[in-house]
Specification:
With 211 residues, the chain is of the alpha+beta class. The chain folds into two domains: 91 residues; 102 residues, no CATH class. The chain contains three helices and seven strands. The strands form three sheets. A three-stranded antiparallel sheet has the order 4-5-6, with no helix packed on it. Strands 1-2 form a two-stranded antiparallel ribbon. Strand 1 and strand 2 form a beta hairpin. The longest helix has 73 residues. The chain is rod-shaped and about 140 Å long. About 4% of the residues have low confidence.
């Protein structure tokens, strides 16, 4: 009920009271009570409406906070996952391979972890499981130790090993015992290629290049 209606009811009550009769007085009293009830009712309705609006506003605010919290949590999880992936990639990059493929003037050749060229010795018998290089030969052509981590460019199925006479392990590739050359001073050197026509650089398939 609005203020104009309330004022009208009160005016009716005043007029009735002015008539001087007890009935008029009763009417005026009833009108006043009705007016107060109307005011109280309107105030309660307004309070209920305001309470509902406040409750809805709080619910909306809580829903927004929950949504923002979920988005923040998802963003953190995505960031953590990316960091984990980056760490895994870094760990993979840090792994060193003790048998690799590298470009050279002779084409793609086998090299060790440091990039030193690897050779085969044709006095060895391919696949025999023994080495013919001993003593002074071994000083000039050091045997390559056991291969544990070939790179992706190498055929891992061709990687093997033999036990030398002194009990040490020597790597093989395609059945050939592998050696480096003491006169190669830097990665990529191929100074041992074709020495005495018995020392040869190996290609990716484990065959002698240029023999």
């Amino acid at each position: 009920m609005n203020k104009k209606l309330l004022a009208l009811l009160m005016m009716i009550g005043v007029i009735a009271a002015a008539c001087g009769s007890s009935t008029a007085t009763d009417v005026a009293s009833d009108v006043a009570d009705t007016a107060e009830d109307v005011v109280d009712g309107d105030e309660e309705a307004m309070e209920d409406e305001e309470a509902m609006e406040d409750e809805e506003a709080m619910e909306d605010e809580e829903a927004m906070e929950d949504e923002e919290a979920m988005e923040d949590e998802e963003a953190m999880e995505d960031e953590d996952a990316m960091e984990d992936d980056a760490m895994e990639d870094d760990a993979m990059e840090d792994v060193s391979h003790d048998l690799n493929v590298a470009p050279s003037d002779l084409g793609q050749i086998l090299v060790d972890e440091a990039g030193n060229t690897l050779y085969l010795f044709t006095n060895d018998e391919q696949g025999a499981g023994t080495s013919a290089c001993e003593g002074g030969c071994l000083a000039a052509w050091p045997a390559v130790g056991e291969i544990t981590s070939p790179s992706g460019g190498v055929n891992a199925d061709l990687v093997g090993s033999i036990e030398r006479a002194d009990g040490t392990i020597q790597a093989t590739y395609n059945g050939w015992p592998l050696y480096t050359f003491a006169s190669d001073s830097a990665p990529g050197d191929v100074n041992g290629q074709a020495v005495n026509d018995i020392w040869w650089v190996l290609d990716v398939d484990g065959n002698a290049i240029g023999s």
